[in-house]
Design brief:
The protein is of the alpha/beta class. The protein contains 15 helices and 20 strands. The strands form five sheets. A seven-stranded mixed beta sheet has the order 10-13-14-9-8-15-16, sandwiched between helices. A six-stranded mixed beta sheet has the order 5-4-3-6-7-18, sandwiched between helices. Strands 1-2-20 form a three-stranded antiparallel beta sheet.
């Protein structure tokens, strides 16, 4: 298939092929589940080679996550796919109305390297379940996982239904230059702007799953030890290369020292005295990214960690204390295992500083004060988040996941994935047997009756 015309070719096949019915989609998703299960060990090994992930982390955040998503879709797809009857006003009697969920057509999915298995297959499952043809373009930075994805997709899907395209910048540009029915992109805000500009050339609808500096706000009522433990877990999962990882911590000034001590204690329990020797601590994706992260470190503010080794792409879990809003590390999303701690004296001032910055993808609040919880969850705009925990809102298929403002556009997961890749076609069914003369000219004497029905 010629990649320069791949979108048009698949659109032609989409219009002329009725084979992708509900039964076919359900069986194919079952085949996908079986294919993943049969390659579980190989997938985990590929993730270890690309990102140094542990078996547990690979299964929990990638393989198991996708298997749960498939099971959820299989349990609900028949119901989601049915036309939904809606009420019809009296003025349209005796007609009936319904909404028909139909696929957009041919979808382009561009996925990143940080969760290369999950973030490729999760939107693919939603797009395919809705009846679309799909082209997926994984990241060139996770080649071992891409190899596994290519095997699975080639085994499970017909080429006319789902196609994986390998390559780097040139191939991505070639794909973006074409006219798609829908585009789904996960990655950085800067590249998201390029994708959105390309989509605008063809008025293509799209979803952008981006990122940003997701704050953790700790108030004086919080359980400090639990906060330290859960923030350490969420931050250093996948060596901080998680779009919803806590990016920085805001904490009362008098609690900063105790909080850091507790976090260091938990990090040593998680990864041992030297995280470099831990099988549970991931690696940075490539040397260029490691160099960027190393350039953010301020030695005089490092409270813990900071060690970097290019030969195995290692950067230690790092905590920076007494960080200010003007420090370099607060300019952009960190996307690595460095956690700045910003002490505050007045929580309202801390909140105002959050509000002055771009809307984050996630927000995490640690408090035992119920009124504070409602106040800040309502007041601060963000994509999604947790109270007294981190990251876990992604694990609930009933919760849509997506950003707001510069952190993203649109959402997915669970039914929201099906909805994202579905056009709701509104249909009014009128009776052929009854034709009320009321709506036809001449209208003399009919206005008062119209006003009676439309109150």
């Amino acid at each position: 298939m010629n990649m320069k015309n791949i979108a048009e070719e698949l659109k032609t096949r989409f219009l002329n092929d009725e084979s992708l019915n509900l039964a076919k989609r359900l069986q194919t998703l079952k085949n996908l589940r079986n294919s993943i299960k049969s390659r579980e060990v190989k997938i985990i090994e590929a993730l270890k080679r690309d990102l140094g992930k542990s078996d547990f982390e690979s299964y929990a955040t990638e393989v198991g996550f996708i298997l749960e998503e498939i099971n959820f879709v299989l349990a609900n797809l028949k119901h989601w796919s049915k036309p939904k009857k809606v009420r019809t006003p009296m003025t349209l009697f005796p007609g009936k109305s319904a909404i028909y969920p139909v696929p957009y057509g041919v979808v382009l999915i561009i996925s990143p390297w940080n969760y290369p298995f999950q973030l490729c297959l999760s939107p693919l499952i939603g797009a395919f379940a809705a009846g679309n043809r799909v082209v997926v373009k994984p990241s060139e930075y996770s080649p071992h996982t891409t190899k596994m994805l290519k095997e699975i997709i080639g085994e499970v899907f017909e080429e006319a239904h789902v196609l994986l395209v390998e390559g780097a910048l040139e191939e991505t540009q070639t794909l973006l230059a074409q006219s798609w029915d829908y585009i789904f992109f996960t990655g950085s805000t800067s590249v998201g702007k390029i994708v959105m500009k390309a989509a605008a050339q063809h008025l293509t609808p799209l979803t952008l799953e981006l990122g940003g500096k997701s704050p953790c706000l700790i108030d004086r009522s919080a359980n400090l030890d639990l906060a330290a433990k859960r923030i350490a877990w969420g931050k250093f999962l996948n060596a901080g290369q998680t779009c919803v990882a806590p990016d920085y911590v805001l904490i009362p000034r008098e609690l900063q020292k105790t909080f850091i001590e507790k976090m260091i204690s938990h990090l040593k329990m998680f990864y041992g005295i030297e995280a470099r020797h831990s099988e549970d601590y991931s690696r940075i994706i490539h040397e260029k990214h490691l160099d960027r992260l190393s350039g953010l470190l301020l030695s005089q503010k490092i409270a813990f960690g900071g060690e970097a080794y290019r030969e195995d792409r290692f950067l230690a879990p790092t905590i920076m204390e007494n960080v200010g809003w003007d420090d370099k590390i607060m300019e952009d999303e960190i996307f690595g295992p460095i956690l700045p701690i910003l002490p505050y004296d007045d929580i309202n001032e801390a909140v105002q500083n959050i509000l002055k910055r771009p809307k984050p993808l996630a927000f995490y609040l640690f408090t035992n004060n119920e009124s504070q919880k409602d106040l800040y969850v309502d007041k601060i705009p963000f994509g999604g988040g947790c109270v007294n925990d981190t990251v876990l809102h992604l694990a609930n298929p009933h919760l849509p996941f997506g950003g707001i403002g510069t952190s993203g556009l649109g959402s997915y997961h669970g039914k929201k994935s099906f909805d994202t890749f579905t056009h709701e076609k509104s249909i009014f069914h009128q009776s052929p047997n009854i034709d009320l003369p009321f709506r036809y000219p001449p209208y003399q004497g009919k206005l008062r009756w119209l006003k009676f029905f439309i109150r």
